Amino acid sequence: MKRTVASLVCGLLFSSAPVMADINVGITLSTTGPAASLGIPERNTVQMLPQEIGGEKINYIVLDDATDTTAAARNSRKFVNENKVDVIIGSTTVPTSAAVAPVAVEAKTPQIALAPFAAKGDEFHWVFTVPQTNELMAGALIEHMKKKGVKKLGYIGYADVWGDDWKKALTDLGKDADITLTSDERFSRADASVGGQVLKVISSKPDAVLVGATGTPAALPHTELRRMGFKGLIYHTHGAANQAFLRIGDQALNGAILPIGPVVIWDKLPDSHPSKAIATQYAQDYEKEFGEGTISPFGAYLYDAGQILTAAIPVALEKAKPGTEEFRSALRDALENVKEVVGTHGVFNLSPTDHFGHDERARSLVEIQDKNWVLIED
Hints:
Elements: H1 5-14, E1 23-29, H2 36-45, E2 52-53, E3 56-64, H3 69-83, E4 87-89, H4 94-107, E5 111-113, H5 122-126, E6 127-129, H6 134-147, E7 152-158, H7 161-177, E8 180-181, E9 185-187, H8 195-203, E10 208-212, H9 219-227, E11 233-236, H10 243-249, E12 257-260, H11 276-290, H12 297-317, H13 325-335, E13 341-343, E14 346-348, E15 364-369, E16 372-375
Parallel strand pairs: 1-3, 1-4, 4-5, 5-6, 7-8, 7-9, 7-10, 10-11
Antiparallel strand pairs: 2-3, 12-15, 13-14, 15-16
Helix pairs in contact: 2-12, 3-4, 6-7, 9-10, 12-13
């Protein structure tokens, strides 16, 4: 695995000896590879995380997994074996998050995923997820499709867990809305061409198409659909909502519809929205440091993970000391009982049956126009 100088510097900056901190947090991010446009704003956000919680110092150990599942698992093993972390945050994508989970289970260490990885079985016990569920976001899109009279929906998505999960959500929710999938085409995150798949999607004669992809790769099927003459609505997932996606897709993205978290439209949120204040603060602080228009929902996911830990760590500290199995278990229990924690992406209410914790306050629909997010009013 190759790492850029920037990623190495980041790792060195935040990986001073564990003895310097009372609570160790391992963070594996995809700051290179196909998901780099998502992982870089997450890495940038590390410096905005709380440096002290419950009177204890926090040490962040940051590693790049290059959007590679093997590297994500390796990073996680380093965290638990060498750094003796109390919690793992990451990774950036669903596949890399899924690769971390077995290590979290084995080490009995809570994991906070930054991608909508729906853990099951033993993994569910230890894994908590910051992003909105695909079902929650897909529900908003299905409602919009119904209003627009969509009956036949073409689908092209990643050939991995993300693509599978979105296909399932669309199939399940589409049944009640009388919406049928006319195609199920797949591509890899690193593919440079999807012409064959797009041709098959168009040949299925859909009323609209949904692209089940994230970040900059999501622009490829969209631009190809338009190049081949598809005139219908094109929908995207919340995983595509970043500035790099807008830049790559440019004017071809005009009219695209996607669900997003509150922080993406922080300056358009009504004052009554619970996330208004914290999303505004995060966005302004981030753009002050990294430039106007650089705000990303993916960096905000990491920021929200910090908010959740801020609520859970003091509870765990009442039961055990950091660096012990007892503390990791207590932290897991505390995370599972987080209530009304306001983040940039909504309000978190976690429970023994819900490790995502979002409700409809975590989503809005936008249309892309001239590389801008335009809020779709109900």
